[in-house]
Amino acid sequence: MRRETFNPAQAQEVAVAFAKHGVDYMFIGKSGAILLGYPGTTQDVDVFPRKSEENGRKIVAALKDLDFAIDENLEQEITRRKDLVQVKTGPFDIDLVFAPDGIENYDEAKQRIDSSSGFPVLNITDIIGDATMRKTTGIFVVMFMLALVAYGQNPPTPSLITVSGQAEVRVEPDEVVFTLGVESVDKDMIAAKKRTDDAVKQVLSIAKANNIKPEDVQTSYISVQPKYNTDDLEYGQRQNVKREFVGYQVSKTIAVTLRDISRFDSLLSDVLKAGVTRLSNVEFRDSKIRQHKDQARAMAIKAAQEKAKLLATQIGQTIGPAYSITESGVVPYSPANVSQNRIDAFVGGTSESESAIAPGTISVSAQVTVSFRLY
Questions:
Q1: Count of alpha carbons within 13 Å of 364, Cβ hemisphere only?
Q2: Are 228 and 256 in contact, with CB atoms under 8 Å apart?
């Protein structure tokens, strides 16, 4: 079915086909002004291509992709860069204006392109100054001038649809970081320090035997403080107990990163036997967190785009290029989020080990707010 009036969706089709074949061009005339948000109607898509034979061949290929019937005569007009080629053999009309009046240099005009619409459009001042456009659009130029005054020489905000999209990628952890504490108490400070140092050396030896790299083992500075028999009592209980010095508590902490979590149980058993007195923290991590975060972002963008298309379809419109994209903070998984526009993915296989630990999965989330042009 032939479309009699220009619709920005046509510009989107042209932009996609031209980009595919590498056509060097910009939108001009009434259609260019409409893309920038100015009022008006037109019957065709006005395009200002670079004037070269190679670019002409690319235009022919792109138009054929758009289902335009290009015979030999029309192809020669395009490749030989006739000043104005009107193409009316496809789903809509296109005017290829290779030599717009008042614009002497394509490269200089290209430097003034207005891309605020998401399309390469000739600057509105140049469009109004194009003599060819003035001859064919008389009253439209007047409308431009009135619009410029009305909007303070700034293009109006385009019609937008703003939606949010979020996604969650759940991945199996592939490394674990655990923090061990070693402490000894003795009235002889040197003796307490020696026992602590000996235990730390055993832990380091166990780590080395398990092929854990030196950079994956970190020890803290030594901590020495007096220990009293009332230290572990509640404040109220201390009133009834005579405070006595027990000894010096010498402590060290060791952080170990294990990159093969299947060995966690055996390694932990060995270090506990070595004299570790405290396991203060266990953190399962994903070594490819950035890769999975990027995956979640891409999925969130897709979710937003699908939502925008659905909503626009319900009111008989279509969406164009994205006008703005904003990433929100990480959204943790919760049942309340299931009803929102969301895409979930699981990365990793199921573990069949009989380990006493169950690390589960790590949630990597992304949420975006996207404004699309509405046509």
A1: 23
A2: no
Q: What is the pLDDT, as a whole number, of residue 55?
A: 93
Q: Residue 149: which residues within 8 A CB-CB, separation 6 or more?
A: none
What is the structure's pLDDT at 54?
A: 92
What's the chain's length in residues? 375
Token pair 């699908």 is found at 306
Q: Which CATH architecture has domain 8-158?
A: 2-Layer Sandwich (3.30)
Return the percentage of the chain with pLDDT > 90, whole number.
Answer: 27
Amino acid identity, position 145: M
Are 86 and 95 in contact, with CB atoms under 8 Å apart? yes
pLDDT in tens, 201-246: 988 888 888 888 889 888 887 888 898 888 778 877 777 888 888 8
**175-285: CATH class:** alpha beta
CA distances from 367 to 38, 127, 168, 292, 325 (A): 33, 39, 9, 14, 10
Handedness of CA 297, 303, 307, 312 (dihedral sign): positive
In percent, how much of the chain has pLDDT > 70? 83
State the Cα angle at 276 between 273 and 280, rounded to 5°. 130
- Class level of CATH domain 161-172+288-374: alpha beta
CB hemisphere CA count around 353 (13 angstroms): 15
Token digits of residue 373: 């042009």
- Which residue from 345, 336, 173, 201 is spatially nearest to 259, judged by alpha carbons? 173
Strand, helix or coil for residue 28: coil
The predicted-structure confidence for 265-301, as pLDDT tens digits, reads as follows 888 888 888 888 888 788 888 888 889 999 999 999 9
Tell me, what amino acid is at 2?
R
Whole-angstrom Cα distance, residue 347 to residue 300?
16
- How far is Cα 198 from Cα 183, in angstroms, rounded to an integer? 11
Domain boundaries, the chain: 8-158, 161-172+288-374, 175-285
